[in-house]
UniProtKB/TrEMBL annotation:
The keyword ATP-binding does not apply. Keywords: Glycoprotein, Membrane, Metal-binding, Sodium, Symport, Transmembrane, Transmembrane helix, Transport. Residues 684-730 are annotated as: Disordered. The keyword Membrane applies. The gene is slc6a17. This is Transporter. GO terms for biological process: alanine transport; glycine transport; L-leucine transport; proline transport; sodium ion transmembrane transport. GO terms for cellular component: plasma membrane; synaptic vesicle. It comes from the Eukaryota.
Amino acid sequence: MPKNTKVTQREHSSEPVTESVADLLSLEHPMDYKSSQMSMGLSPGSTAPVKALLPSPDPDAEDGRPAWNNKLEYILAQVGFSVGLGNVWRFPYLCQKNGGGAYLVPYFILLLLIGIPLFFLELAVGQRIRRGSIGVWNYVYPRLGGIGVSSLMVCGFVGLYYNVIIGWSIFYFFQSFQYPLPWAECPLRRNGTQAIVEPECEKSSATTYFWYRQTLNITSTIDDTGGLNWKMTLSLLVAWIMVCLAVIKGIQSSGKVMYFSSLFPYVVLFCFLVRGLMLKGAVDGIAHMFTPKLEKMLEPQVWREAATQVFFALGLGFGGVIAFSSYNKRDNNCHFDAALVSIINFVTSILATLVVFAVLGFKANVMNEKCVVDNAEKILGYLNSGVLSRELIPPHINFSHLSAQDYAEMYGVIKTVKEDSFGQLGLDACVLEDELNKAVQGTGLAFIAFTEAMTHFPASPFWSVMFFFMLINLGLGSMIGTMTGITTPILDAFKIRKEILCVVCCIIAFLLGLLFVQRSGNYFVTMFDDYSAGLPLTVVVILENVSVAWIYGTKRFMQDLEDMLGFRPYSFYYYMWRYVSPAVLVVLIVATVIEMAVSPAGYNAWVESEGSERFQSYPPWALAMAYALIVVAMLPLPLVFIARHFNLISDGSNKLSVSYRKGMMKDISNLEEQDEQRFILSKNPSEAPSPMPAHRAYLGPGGTQEMTNTNYGTSTKTGYQNIGSPESEL
């Protein structure tokens, strides 16, 4: 080794190490890429393989990075992060709205085209570089380092309102320990000596009233904040304490939490499915779900919503997937993990949809029977008052045991005979299909429709406790991944104690979350859900795709995967990453922008006097706030690009941790000693035999030409570039 290198100077100096990896390698001898650490080959003339110049994957290695206790904990963590509340209350709604069983076809196709490939990409880069979202994209292409910052900000926005939903579930969970359930009947109001039903409840329903008035105590507009709702404030505090305790000890602790939080929801869903199938009308609900409306498959809106659901169901772009995989061993089979977690996510969505439609089928039958009874009483009143003739009633109909079929027959006769004055009678058709078509999603499904159905269950408090405990666990699993996506890149960039960082983040998040526990807080939850994540995350993921497939290079990335996994991934991924996935994401971005431009920006406000929701447009300040969420989340992307393009800030690509540099020094010192030994033995390093076969270059899918390469320190075409350059830091 030349005596003027910084490595040799360092051996004779007591000064602390300040050189970057690029500085250390800039004066070294050129090295062929096949013998480089990126290809896991041998150094020229060495008789032993050189250690990879990436942080060691072992928890007890030089970089000291934590690792999962076992593979099962890691899989459960990824499943817990990807399987969330959206699988229970978003997927069934989309399935019902977009053609039942026909919706599953575009969903599954898009899962294969963009879901699994992009999920595999995030797992691979996290495992390869062993950093959080900020560090990973600084390594791949520093000018796009804003990707990680945008991911972190979106995680922050989503975490703020997502934990509020967990707080709502906690409130309902504790309210479930009473019989009858508090939302089973409308409360009574004393008016002197008389007790009357609460007018707001009478105009809506018991479950709707409990949700809007007794839980949220909601205002009529977003302008009227109404002050803090102290019940929801305490619930939010409990939710953040739970999340903080789960995250504060790191992945060893959160991995153990995942054993329960990831598996328990499946136990509850299975129990609900068995119980739901025993309910009257459950088969009607499931049949309604799987009855395909094939004409829906030709509508672009169905494909757009399917793509969006695939995108968010796997947690792409949040940084949680990258953060979790960064704690893996470098040779972990992340290809298998990507396929397994994606399939589990899809099966969970189907299972949850079966449960939801079984319960909603039961609820539809109950509501339809109630409709028949109420309208039969109206008809009896008309018969007794002489408005209707008894000759209109078929002779076989018995009002004391009136079935839905009997009522439908009687309704048809009356409508035909009294065609001119039928509208004045105020009779409803009471068709089961109409009840099944009443689509509900989100909070409307969990806190209104499902709670109403459970009031008709035998032992309803037990099922209510189980349901909301399941929601808490689903939310907790996703929040652990979201918080890991925030803390991991910060811990990688700064030397901060994990416990202090987690506590500070949770305190700040709780204080900011007070916005959502005002009486008008539900309107802000809707705003953040609509604007803070959708478009910014889609832009983040397409830039992730482009930076790996087009800037770093798909062939080079496939070669890295082959070195890392021990086998070459299917050519399918090559074409998906390079062409199909970016194209689909561009179409999705355009469709999202068009929808935002065409659809009016607003929210569903609760009107107390009417006992119903009414759509209202956002006031100017709220509209500005909504669009500010999009701008703030995407702002790091152009800012970081411009700043690094004009060298205003460091590119961050060669700033490794101290332990990383120490590992580098040790490796290079070992190389020096080996060269000295060969010199003493009068052997040229280039003549040393290699105990391993030459590494085969990746030819690309169907390729016959080997990648062009040159030595380090010079230009390259498709081979690995200078390790000091931003493009080669992966």
